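I am sending you the entry underneath: sequence plus fold tokens. Let me know what the token row says about the fold:
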Amino acid sequence: MNLKSTFASNSDQAILEEAIRGEKKALEDYNEILKEADLPAFTKAVLENHREKVQSALDHVKTMK
């Protein structure tokens, strides 16, 4: 995320868009990692839990936009 320029613009819209972009990227990364077939069950469960929280945060930020 390019937070410095986003905050420098002092635009709520720009900040929300940057947050959405960052959360979407995090979800892509989690989804890619979770495709690994050889993850231990505990690790997979932790990653899935984190992914769900990122998705929830993304949904929340989208409603603020």
Q: What stands out?
A: The chain has one domain: 3-64. The mean pLDDT is 86. Residues 3-64 form one domain. The CA atoms of residues 8 and 51 lie 29 Å apart.
